[in-house]
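Proteins fold reproducibly. Look at a concrete instance:
___
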Amino acid sequence: MLNQKVYLSSGAYFETYIMDSEINYREYRKRPAIIVAPGGAYAIHATKESEPVALQFLQMGYQTFVLKYSVGSDRAHPEKGILKGAKYPLQVQEMLETIHIVKQNAEQWNIDANQVFLMGFSAGGHVCASCGVRWDDSKIVEKLNFVPIGNELKVKGIVLGYPFLTPNTQEFTDQHKIEGVEKVQDIMNYVLYQTNEPTNQQIQNVDLLNYISASSVPMFIWHSIDDPVVDSRNSTRFISKLLDFEIPCEYHLFGHGEHGKSLENQLTHIKDNEIDLHLNQWVKLAKQWMERIGSE
């Protein structure tokens, strides 16, 4: 297996988890690929939404990559305060550059270039979904350090777990005071708006509902009704608007799961009795969806 870091022009990087193409003696195949964007409120990279997810889907037959996009803090050096360079949509440009590199190296990395998917969680879902609805947005594409060829930046499909897609209403925020979220709210506000008091226009600029169009990428979304961090109703609205444009999609709204649960298996839990096997079903459902979308 090839495991290495590949640095991007911004200084961010992605990690590779690449299997050999030989699946049996003198039998070879190119594999589909998934680029993972972990969550973390644009402040950190959530550990259990990074390598564990890559390994889960690696053993399911995918070449996997984990993008460590630019965030607003340095976990190892908190004394640095908010990192001023990590302004959205830089993270989208980083993901688009990653897509470009993966497709450019498809032959070397044993990848079917027509079978590249994105997978994002929470804030990482905002990065991936942004690529899904803004992959051809000139305001972003013109800032890339390369010229994309044709539709190379449009991936086959995107899987999103409890994604941040549109800012929560003030009413939802007031009803759900989460200590961990409040601690990083200033960082997230800076990354998205560069202020703690964004104007309506600044909020609309990061609201992905405003970018859905007929050219948007097919999406699979799973969420939980009791998520206290990201309002699940926002995912419902997002899916509804994708349907307005006849974009292929699938939506699973679980009755319980809260936020940040990732895989819900032995890769992300120490004790087996703490695993939510019902919520874990999203893994198989997402794989089946990607296989169906990939065959179309």
Notes: Residues 73 and 193 are 15 Å apart (CA to CA). The chain has a mean pLDDT of 94. The longest strand covers residues 111-121.
